[in-house]
């Protein structure tokens, strides 16, 4: 056993080396409000942890805390049935007496929901640490009252891991067998032949179960092989010595026809074998040794099932996750041909696990009863010789490991913890097959990814749960016309389509998405989900490689018209969604040099300061995306800017001061360093006459106020969309701002920055962040001992589009950065003033 290799590898992991930029960036990020998802949640109901789909009936069964629901799987907001399954008061008290929490732990958490037949579900719950199972009649949606002991089928403790699968009416489960959770078990619940694992460390060592599924034998094969049930879990290693506990991801399997042994391994599995699952980078620098979930892709188009697992490293200081895929044949080979491990005692009580190189008894220990065994007259596991049984009892662990397809993870991603996985096999228009991986995160998001030519492409990231809570279960329905994903969390269940093709409005966008579900339908000019269409047409455009050159050049362009005042600031919006694209602005067909202080490029807009005649014209926002050395660019937004003659717009009714009117042009950032030359401190700086009259005043203590201006000079905002209003003033050092909205004083969301000027006055910039549903009047007043000034503006609400909360935050952040830029400028300015002053004093 290459222990030293593992040490070295883990050492590197400790060293947090190889922290290279891992993983592709999702091309599109859909915020929760940007996508149409269906939610199901009931007040006072939590822990929607168990989901079961009945595809035939279009029903989604949901097991939550103390309740089971039957929902319409096409629209989960529609509830068909609910059944409360509560713990009796007596049981609750007993549970609390044992030191468990009456409000949380001593409740009934539904952990098993499995179909027994068309009309009955087998259900189990933790039932205040006394697990029970029952039959749920689907007609009446009532329990039959069987109250079977759920020990070994359902955990006692809701915090403990569990997995189960129903195979031909018998429940196979992996869980713990006692109150303390210290006795792990993989068992078959069956009247004829209940079987379980040996309670011994070599069999199961503090496992954490994640998944179980059955794989049917090939009925056409001449091998007459048995159906096999696979279990996946992480457990403590016995084979590696390590400082502290080293976890190992495992795959184990049992055979369906196993009957246990006659004397040795009586009522125990005679076919239980387990092996290590490897998920490491080829250089072994990163070892993913915790398995979080598994999905077994069984598609008619596949020669053999493919096992997909999501992993995280044990010491996850880098926040990494990985997806590894395994061929079933690789797994089978390990169990049917691989070497076994055996324990050897070194120095008194210390045991070491090493490869077993001795003779292997016949029939092969742990093998299912197949044609070969039958030919040797072993018709059932009950006939197996003691030698074989004793061997498997002592050697359940394989020395060979299961290596992933391609010897590397399919996906490695940084800064994310993957929790669950489902995979859909999609045939693209040109006949190529893609395994689309849907991987959920512990922050309520979903990543949809494909692997392409050994590379990885994350098509999109979808925020399924608005509160960023972990996704605990993920289910895929791949029924034609009803392809949906269902995700369960502590607070509810979400139903999501598998693709958002209709969100792509141009052919280039539709193709660049590289989504095998989506294609461009030219004559309708829409991006469609190919699996929803009845027949495929020739002229659809799709290229999962991302080559959009077959898209037509002509696209309809709408342009937005703006008129702006001289000296003001323009905000030209351009929301391009792709995280892989670069935004390029063009003005009069030339690329704009946005590095110039005249411009500021925000995430979703371009700001142009101090507008003048020369700035009028056509602005185009282009999104440029590179795919394999090919660059695709498309116009995302087009703005036409036109300057308006200066007109006094905001007049203070109380003090219609001339200064206010004169200063109706608003420079932003305010009059800057560009014209600051060293002038005598006793003579005010000479200014060009386009500048506001603020600085030429000889009355040093006079209060000057510029009227409020909006970040978007259009002076109207969208319903509930955030905006910022700015006011600037100069005045004596005690000057301060007061904001009023519809006559009411505003206290929240008011910010202020003030800077002392060399002549003793202060310059104050104040702004408010707000969102309104109706037209509102805002007043900004500057109060000081030298006098007060008020200016007001009416904000009108236009359009019905609401802006999402997240977008809101981003916008605010963008503005914050713009404002901090302003701050830097003010500082700069002050320094210059001060240095000028110093020079003049002597
Ligand atoms: C159940 O949900 C509650 C509320 O979100 C959460 O605090 C708790 O940890 C969950 N319990 C289990 C066992 O998942
Ligand atoms: C088994 O063989 C029959 C006939 O040769 C064929 O029609 C069927 O598809 C095969 N089934 C499988 C699972 O390969
Ligand atoms: C897995 O199976 C595929 C096709 O069945 C094959 O191309 C590939 O080489 C196999 N990989 C491994 C590691 O055996
Ligand atoms: C389908 O298109 C993709 C992307 O261009 C390409 O990689 C693949 O080879 C094509 N498949 C077939 C069968 O032509
Ligand atoms: C604003 O633009 C004018 C020309 O239109 C220029 O003279 C002035 O210096 C600019 N002001 C700032 C602060 O850049
Ligand atoms: C300015 O406003 C404050 C508060 O509203 C008021 O107390 C003060 O008298 C006003 N000053 C002048 C000069 O109007």
CATH domain class name of the largest domain: Mainly Beta
Bound molecules: 2-acetamido-2-deoxy-beta-D-glucopyranose
CATH superfamily of the largest domain: YVTN repeat-like/Quinoprotein amine dehydrogenase
Taken as a percent bin, the fraction of beta residues is 35-45%
Alpha-carbon Rg, integer: 34 Å
CATH architecture of the largest domain: 7 Propeller
Q: Structural class of the helix and strand makeup?
A: mainly beta
| Overall structural domain count | 5
Major sheet description? 5 strands, mixed
Q: Given the C-alpha coordinates, what overall shape results?
A: elongated
Main sheet strand line-up:
1-29-28-27-26
Q: Give the number of DSSP strands.
A: 51
Average pLDDT number: 82
CATH topology of the largest domain: Methylamine Dehydrogenase, Chain H
Number of H- or I-type helical stretches: 8
Descriptive notes:
The protein is mainly beta. It has 5 domains: 3-47 and 158-497, Methylamine Dehydrogenase, Chain H; 48-157; 501-541, ligand-binding face of the semaphorins, domain 2 (2-Layer Sandwich), CATH 3.30.1680; 559-643, Immunoglobulin-like, CATH 2.60.40.10; 671-840, Immunoglobulin-like, CATH 2.60.40. The strands form 13 sheets. A 5-stranded mixed beta sheet has the order 1-29-28-27-26, with no helix packed on it. Strands 7, 8, 9, 10 and 11 form a 5-stranded antiparallel beta sheet that branches. Strand 4 (59-64) and strand 5 (67-72) form a beta hairpin. It is elongated, with a radius of gyration of 34 Å. Residues 1-20, 646-700 and 800-812 have low confidence and may be disordered. The protein binds 2-acetamido-2-deoxy-beta-D-glucopyranose (6 copies). One 2-acetamido-2-deoxy-beta-D-glucopyranose (NAG) binds next to loops. One 2-acetamido-2-deoxy-beta-D-glucopyranose is lined by residues 46-47, 158-159, 490-491. Belongs to the semaphorin family. Its main location: membrane. It is found in: Cell membrane.
């Amino acid at each position: 056993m290459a222990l030293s290799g593992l040490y070295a590898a883990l050492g590197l992991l400790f060293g947090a080396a190889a922290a290279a930029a891992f993983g592709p960036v999702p091309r599109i990020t859909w915020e929760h409000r940007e996508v149409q998802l269906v939610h199901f949640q009931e007040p006072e109901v939590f822990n929607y942890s168990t989901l079961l789909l009945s595809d035939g009936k279009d029903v989604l069964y949901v097991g939550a805390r103390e309740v089971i629901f039957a929902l319409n799987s096409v629209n989960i907001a529609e509830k068909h049935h609910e059944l409360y399954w509560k713990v009796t008061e007596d049981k609750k008290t007993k549970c609390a007496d044992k030191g468990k929490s009456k409000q949380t732990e001593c409740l009934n958490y539904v952990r098993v929901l499995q179909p027994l037949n068309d009309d009955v579900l087998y259900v189990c719950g933790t039932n205040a640490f006394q697990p029970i199972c029952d039959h749920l009649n689907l007609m009446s949606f009532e329990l039959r009252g069987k109250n079977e002991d759920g020990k070994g089928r359902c955990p006692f403790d809701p915090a403990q891991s569990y997995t189960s699968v129903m195979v031909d009416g018998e429940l196979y489960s992996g869980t713990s067998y006692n109150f303390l959770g210290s006795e792990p078990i993989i068992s078959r619940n069956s009247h004829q032949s209940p079987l379980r694992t040996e309670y011994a460390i070599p069999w199961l060592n503090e496992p954490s179960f994640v998944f179980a599924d059955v794989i049917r034998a090939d009925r056409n094969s001449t091998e007459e092989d048995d159906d096999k049930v696979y279990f996946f879990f992480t457990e403590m290693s016995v084979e590696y010595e390590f400082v502290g506990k080293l976890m190992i991801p495992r795959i184990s399997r049992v055979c369906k026809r196993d009957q246990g042994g006659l004397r040795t391994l009586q009522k125990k599995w005679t076919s239980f074998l387990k092996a290590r699952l490897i998920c490491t980078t080829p250089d072994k620098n990163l070892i993913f040794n915790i398995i979080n979930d598994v999905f077994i892709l069984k598609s008619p188009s596949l020669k053999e099932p493919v096992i997909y697992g999501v992993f995280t490293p044990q010491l996850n200081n880098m926040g990494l996750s990985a997806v590894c895929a395994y061929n079933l044949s690789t797994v089978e080979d390990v169990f049917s041909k691989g070497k076994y491990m055996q324990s050897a005692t070194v120095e008194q009580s210390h045991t070491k696990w090493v490869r077993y190189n001795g003779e292997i008894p016949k029939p092969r220990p742990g093998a299912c009863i197949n044609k070969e065994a039958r030919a040797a007259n072993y018709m059932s596991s009950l006939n197996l010789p003691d030698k074989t049984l004793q061997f498997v009892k002592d050697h359940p662990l394989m020395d060979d490991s299961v290596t992933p397809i391609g010897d590397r993870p399919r996906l490695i991603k940084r800064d994310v913890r993957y929790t669950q996985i489902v995979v859909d096999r999609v045939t693209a228009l040109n006949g190529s097959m893609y395994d689309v991986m849907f991987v959920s995160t512990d922050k309520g998001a979903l990543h949809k990814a494909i692997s392409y030519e050994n590379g990885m492409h994350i098509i999109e990231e979808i925020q399924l749960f608005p509160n960023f809570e972990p996704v605990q279960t993920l289910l895929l329905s791949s029924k034609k016309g009803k392809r949906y994903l269902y995700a369960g969390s502590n607070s509810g269940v979400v139903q999501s389509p598998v693709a958002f093709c209709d969100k792509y409005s141009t052919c280039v966008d539709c193709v660049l998405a590289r989504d095998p579900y989506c294609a461009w339908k030219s004559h309708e000019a829409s991006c469609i989900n190919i699996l929803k269409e009845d027949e495929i047409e020739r002229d659809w455009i799709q290229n999962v490689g991302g080559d959009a050159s077959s898209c037509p050049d002509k696209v309809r362009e709408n342009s937005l018209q703006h008129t702006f005042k001289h000296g003001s600031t323009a905000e030209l919006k351009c929301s391009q969604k792709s995280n892989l694209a670069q935004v390029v602005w063009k003005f009069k067909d030339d690329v704009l040099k946005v590095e110039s202080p005249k411009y500021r490029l925000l995430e979703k807009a371009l700001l142009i300061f101090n507008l003048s005649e020369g700035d009028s014209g056509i602005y185009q926002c282009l999104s440029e995306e590179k795919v394999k050395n090919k660059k695709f660019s498309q116009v995302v937004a087009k703005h036409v800017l036109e300057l308006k003659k200066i007109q006094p717009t905001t007049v203070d009714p109380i003090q219609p001061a001339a200064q206010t009117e004169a200063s109706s042009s608003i420079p932003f950032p305010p009059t800057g360093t560009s014209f600051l030359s060293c002038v005598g401190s006793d003579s005010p700086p000479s200014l060009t006459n386009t500048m506001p009259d603020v600085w030429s005043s000889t009355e040093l203590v006079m209060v000057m106020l510029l009227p409020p201006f909006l970040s978007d000079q259009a002076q109207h905002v969208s319903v509930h969309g955030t905006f910022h209003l700015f006011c600037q003033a100069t005045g004596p050092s005690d000057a301060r701002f007061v904001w009023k909205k519809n006559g009411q004083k505003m206290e929240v969301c008011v910010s202020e920055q003030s800077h002392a000027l060399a002549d003793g006055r202060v310059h104050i910039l104040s702004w408010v962040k707000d969102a309104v549903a109706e037209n509102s009047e805002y007043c900004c007043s500057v109060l000081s001992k030298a006098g007060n000034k008020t200016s007001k503006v009416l904000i009108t609400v236009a359009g019905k589009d609401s802006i999402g909360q997240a977008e809101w935050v981003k916008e605010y952040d963008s503005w914050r950065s713009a404002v901090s830029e302003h701050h830097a400028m003010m500082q700069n300015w002050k320094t210059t003033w001060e240095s000028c002053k110093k020079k003049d004093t002597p």
